Amino acid sequence: MPIRNAIASLAVKDIESALKWYERLLGRSADSRPMAEVAEWKFDGGGWLQVYQLPERAGSGSVTLAVTDIDEQAAHLRQCKIDTGQRSSGQKVKTLMITDPDGNHIAFAQAIDPGMAQ
Questions:
Q1: Structural domains in the chain?
Q2: InterPro entries annotated for this entry (predicted)?
């Protein structure tokens, strides 16, 4: 039975306030609201980000989002008034780490090595 796709998910305390923050972060409304306490965004290269209300787990998640230009992403984050101070770079990837208002960690990664996931 082959796996066809993956959904990364992050728990938040309150879906309505998180929804506003993630819409600013991602630059658009959620693509899907399958339940009142769930919002989902689909990405061009495949995969989804799901944000769901579950206060007892909020803030303990992490996800990596692949981007084509880390500097462009950093500029967008600064416009959103999100701290971009946690950046690193290696031979294969450049990263930028942020946290959402609930404490979940979100890494943006730009592959330098063409063999890395994009």
A1: 7-111 (3.10.180.10)
A2: Glyas_Bleomycin-R_OHBP_Dase (IPR029068), Glyas_Fos-R_dOase_dom (IPR004360), VOC_core (IPR037523)
Residue 37 φ/ψ, nearest 5 degrees = -100, 15
Which residues 6+ apart lie within 8 Å of 41 measured at CB?
22, 26, 28, 30, 31, 48, 49
Residue with structure tokens 């500097």?
71
55 alpha-carbon distance from chain centroid: 19
User: Could you report the per-residue pLDDT of 97-107, keeping only the tens digit for each?
Assistant: 999 999 999 99
pTM, two decimals, is 0.90
Query: How many Å apart are CA 32 and CA 68, to the nearest integer?
Result: 24
